[in-house]
Design goal:
homodimer; 324 residues; alpha/beta; 434 Repressor (Amino-terminal Domain); Rossmann fold; 3 domains; six-stranded mixed beta sheet; 12 helices; 12 strands; DNA-binding
DNA sequence: CATTAAAATGACAACGTTACCAATATCTGC
DNA sequence: GCAGATATTGGTAACGTTGTCATTTTAATG
């Protein structure tokens, strides 16, 4: 900055003001400084700026995993808002591990981010305090059932489960099964299953059987689990899946095994991923607004100074697929 | 830090040394400081540290998009290495736009990252200079055909195209078509198509027809394009796709239309995504090591101090699918 | 136990910005 | 043309660390 200042024949502070276009700068001076800055290809050092300001243009984003299209969509949504504002996401992955999550949050907070986005509402004791100490806005995503630290954007997973149960019941399915995976790692999926089971019981057609694989969700696991579940309980006429990867696997199994879908076996996924719309029989699914969730999270973060903390239910919808 | 120092009855610098476990600290002092730090729940301010050190624990990662499973896998691979080292990715998305990419790179560099990972080898004039000015390592991913700024990890897309052409030719296909999308946005895919076409010509069975949709790649677009291409050139006995989303769409179209795959129509995708392994007929595809690419990129970045710049060809393999 | 080497601790000045206040130039209205 | 207001510029001191060097303490040696 010193070099730019002396080349332009002005003080450093003026260079600073020009670079972040602060008010009350004459056009003459601005032009002179810009020219000098360009000729030296000077870029302001944000680290120094952040140190002085006690805040930065970074947003800490803590997600459980990147190998799940749900979270990459969410991140995409977040970035779509941040990038336009000249903000940047610093990423931390918890891998569904609370210890690790704490460590990651601590490290990210040490960068004085201007805000933080967390996944889920489960955050325990030291975390809310740490964030409050910095006085930055927090948005928690995915779930809205619980007590958020700050704002929250997501859907009600128990509502979604009830919606699924009612939908399948309305369609006439009476012997319903459930398939999950990865030991129900995102604990939201467990809550969803429990609400689903409870609703089915209320409807008088309790869950017939279920399989929760220990492996990570994938179409392959979905296919295998479906075969296994149908062997274990042949009377099943419909399966609700923890996510679309599993459901697609189920659909592929049915197609291969010549099982009539949705007549002989109904299939309902969760999330509504794009590929499910193109399968020979389009997958029925509970569509969740993942990209939108990211966008809203980022927007809430940016506006929380004026608007304070909010809870935003983005709600789901049941897709017009043909498998259930 | 001052508070911790006075609580522990030591100097600030000693606190600093304990926090980043520098050598030559007695156990007694370390314990005392740690206790004080914990009781005040003190976290070092990395911004200040980075300013002093002129380098941080951030790694700038510039990708074209997050709505493509290729890049989320790559990012996953990058994070899997970084997180273990206490490093963090700061993300920038170019949206396949060179202007935007330049802006993003500039902003990320102003954070004094300890390294930067870029996508592709196309980076023009100001960029190499800007990076060199900081003296930090660069790794470019996806492609290795060209002149990298620093290190590069990826595959040879022309080799992959040649491999695809040879494979299909060996299988007896003679009337081959091609389907791409999104105006061949990642320019690598165009290079790949051209190499594919050239090889087919050399083999004496030039490309029969192709469709490059302007829409973003998706199974839906793949399905539509496949129908359109077959109508346009019914003699086609095989289609090579720019990616697996498109190819899966093609497969779904074939399944719906009752086209015999791979007898009547062969299908070959690109990338080898997981879901293709579970379809009723497993998708044949050129498998690319996306996760591994991210891992290697991060590793190269970390080791480039000792090992200097390298070019790493991770190579592809043709999957054991059944659609071609 | 003196002497020297090594280990442990501390003081101070940066790192590159920007907030705060002071100083100067420019513009009003009468 | 002048006081007073306003717009524009500059000076100085932080922000919270850490590298360098100085100082103190501890250990090692004969």
């Amino acid at each position: 900055m010193k070099d730019v200042a002396s080349l332009a024949g002005v003080s450093e502070i003026s260079v600073s003001r020009v670079m972040r276009n602060a008010p009350n700068i004459s056009k003459k001076l601005r032009d002179r400084v810009m020219e000098a800055a360009n000729s030296l290809s000077y870029t302001p050092n944000r680290v120094a700026g952040a140190l002085k300001n006690q805040s930065s243009n970074l947003v800490a984003v803590v997600l459980p995993s990147m190998s799940n299209e749900v979270f990459s969509s969410v991140l995409d949504g977040i970035e779509s808002v941040l990038n336009d504002q000249g903000l940047h996401a610093v990423l931390g992955l918890s891998e569904y591990d609370t210890e690790r999550e704490l460590k990651v949050i601590r490290e990210l907070l040490s960068w004085s981010p201007m805000g933080i986005i967390l996944t889920g509402l489960h955050h325990q004791d030291p975390i809310p305090g740490m964030i409050e100490q910095l006085g930055i806005p927090v948005v928690q995503i995915m779930d809205i059932e619980g007590t958020p630290i700050g704002s929250a954007v997501g859907i009600s997973h128990s509502d979604a489960a009830i919606g699924a149960a009612d939908y399948l019941h309305d369609k006439g399915y009476r012997k319903i099964g459930y398939i999950g995976a990865w030991s129900e790692k995102p604990e939201r999926s467990k809550a969803r299953r429990l609400a689903f089971e409870a609703r089915l019981s209320d409807l008088g057609t309790p869950l017939v059987a279920s399989i929760i694989s220990e492996e990570r969700s994938s179409a392959t696991v979905g296919s295998q689990s479906t075969a296994a579940l149908l062997q274990q309980a042949p009377e099943i006429d419909c399966i609700f899946y923890a996510n679309d990867d599993l459901a697609l696997g189920g659909l592929f199994h049915a197609l291969s095994a010549g099982i009539n879908v949705p007549g002989e076996l109904g299939l309902l996924g969760f999330n509504g991923i794009e590929i499910g719309k193109a399968t020979p029989i389009p997958l029925s699914s509970i569509e969740t607004p993942r990209f939108e969730m990211g966008r809203e999270a980022a927007k809430l973060l940016l506006s929380s100074k004026e608007n304070g903390n909010r809870i935003k239910d983005l709600s789901f919808k049941i897709s017009g697929g043909k498998t259930a």
